[in-house]
Structure formats: structure tokens, C-alpha cells
Amino acid sequence: MNRIFAGVLVMASLGAMGCSGAGSTGASPDARSRSASLSVSDARGRLREADQAMSDASAKAGSAQGFAQFLAEDAVMLVDGEYALRGRDAIQAWLTAHPLEQGGTVHWEPVRWDVSADGTLGYSVGHSTVDAAGATAKSLGRYISMWRQQPDGAWRVAVMVRNAAKTPMTPPTGFSASHTLPAAAPRTLAKDAVLAEAKAADSAFSELSTKEGMGKAFITYAAEDAVLLGGPAGLFGREAIAQAYTPFTLDKIDLRWEPVLGDAAASGDLAYTVGRAVASGKNAEGKPETDYVKYLTVWRRQADGQWRYVTDGGNSNPGPQGP
User: Which positions fall inside the DUF4440 domain (predicted)?
Assistant: First the structure.
């Protein structure tokens, strides 16, 4: 993890304690028809089952085989210190060289999962655990997976970000595993038009960060029930995010970004963006330093028509290109 951005995440943790792949691709008429026949609740259940099946396959066959079979052909994976891995083959090759199970058994457990109103796009947020024979401690990670329903009705991962962690995500009592707030008015749009709205929101989000600070931006654009990977147990809800991010004023860190890739549901209520970011600030010695980051942001259109992020995560890039 880059030094400046790692410092941001550490401060967020302390604050919380005190307080296609990525490209847009159209769903087939059969997939849309199949989704329309399912209720949102049923679609959420199917997505949860897919996440569990991914975990079971990973535990049985390892990440390069079990996990990789749940990737869309054009999937994107964000891992720390690398430019984004693009395509199932590239991800599988990387996992063969850097298996997530590290000689043990890897499991995935979501704490939040949800789907678009038309059931064609969904996301899950949670933690991964590696149990190694004879190990005295478990290896942990936290992840966001963006899922896309395939023409045959199967759910496959379009984008994933995974970061190392010291503790699992633990939702507070009463926090819902899925979205329960009033939904935006139903509508049907071309997916490209929906994605354009989400990208515009992402760009405005970055502009606020450059003008008024990262903390103000992350608080302003958080959905009321947003979930972030930071903090000792994860950050659940806008109030927890505000407590963690208020210290990130413009004089401490200048974080700016731009969306590059993404996809959206034709129901007009859910989208995601993948992009690159630059963090500028000072290191521990007070000297200027610049770090590069890639990110995944999941957006939900709110009841008032505004786009707000429901989850967001990223990790370091080796340079300014990418994501």
C-alpha cells in the first residue's frame, strides 16, 4: 500500500475506533426477461448463493481454479501494488503465481449484498479468511465484488477489489445486509445513459474533494447506509464514515480521481465506476509525496434522484497509468 494512502486508511481506522469486466455491456433480452420474473428479494438471494458458491469452490479447488470460475470473461481485479488485472485469463495467471489461499484454505463471507431493481447487476462486500493447517492465526482480507448476471442467468464477478486486513468486518447490531431505505422512482434507460450519470456523480465527488477536502467529499457523497472497508470492523453507515473521515482536510491530503471504466443497470438505480486517483501530501518527515491509487465505487440512485456511493474501495498503483 502506498504510504500516503495507507496513512489515510490507518487514520480512518483510528477515527472509527474513537468514533465490463469494468466495461459496459448490454444484458441480453433473455437475461432481462429472466430477471424481471424474479423479485428483488429473490435476486438478492440468488446473488448471496453465488457468493457462497464462490467461497465453496475457492475452498475446494483454490483461488486460481475455484474462484476464477466465477469471474466474467472480461473481469477486472484490483490488487495492491499492481495495475488492474484485466480479463479472466490474466487474473487466473496472477492467482496461480499469487494464490490467495497461501497454502491453506480460503473462504469468502459477505456482510452486505444487494442488486439492482431489474436484477441484472449486484454487489457484495465482506471479508475473506485463510485457514492454514498448523497456523496460529488466520490471514484476513476485505473485498468488494461487483456481479453481473450472464445471459444464462448465472452471476459472475465483473470487478473485485481485495485488500489485506487484520480483522474481519463486523456489522453493528441492526445493520441490514441489504438496502432497506426508500428506493428511487422506477425508470428504464439505456445502460450507457445510466453509466454517464454515475460517472458525472463520480467526477463531482472528486471535484468536491479537490475543493473542500477528501473528508468532506466522502461524507457528502455517502449513502445513509454506505459500507466502507476501512476501520477496525468496517465502517457501516454515513455517521460512522463521518466520524472516521472528518480529519481528512485539504491541508492534510489532496485526493483527486477520474472514472475510467464502469457499467450500469438499465433500471437506472445501480452502477459502478472504476478509475485512477492521485493522493498528494507530506510524509512523516514533512516532505511532499505523491501516491497513485485505483478504485471501485458502487453507486445507487437515491429516492431524491441523487447518486450516492454505497461502497467504495481501492489500493495502490505502481504509477499514474491504469487503473
Answer: 48-157, 215-308
Residue 126 and residue 240 in one domain: no
Q: Are residues 38 and 160 in the same domain?
A: yes
State how many domains the chain has.
2
pTM for this prediction: 0.89
Per-residue pLDDT of the chain (323 residues; tens, 9 = 90+): 343 454 454 344 433 333 334 454 444 444 444 444 578 999 999 999 999 999 999 999 999 999 999 999 999 999 999 999 999 999 999 999 999 988 889 999 999 999 999 999 999 999 999 987 755 557 899 999 999 999 999 999 999 999 999 999 999 999 999 999 998 998 989 999 999 999 999 999 999 999 999 999 999 999 999 999 999 999 999 999 999 999 999 999 999 999 999 999 999 999 999 999 999 988 888 888 999 999 999 999 999 999 999 999 999 999 999 89
- 202 and 127 together in one domain: no
Report CA 262 to chain centroid distance, whole Å: 12
Residues 82 and 148 placed together within one structural domain of the fold:
yes
DSSP code string of 139-176: EEEEEEEEEEE-TTS-EEEEEEEEEEESS---PPTT--
CATH number at residue 104: 3.10.450.50
299: nearest Cα among 314, 316, 311: 311
Shared domain for 135 and 241, answered yes or no, is no
Q: Let me know if residue 21 belongs to a domain.
A: no
Q: Is 132 exposed, middle or buried (0-12, 13-18, 19+ CB in 10 A)?
A: middle
The count of C-alpha atoms lying within 13 angstroms of the C-alpha of 32, restricted to the half-sphere facing its C-beta, is 11
Whether 296 is in a domain gets the answer yes
Give me the amino acid identity at 58.
Answer: S
**Phi/psi at 191 (nearest 5 deg)?**
-60, -35
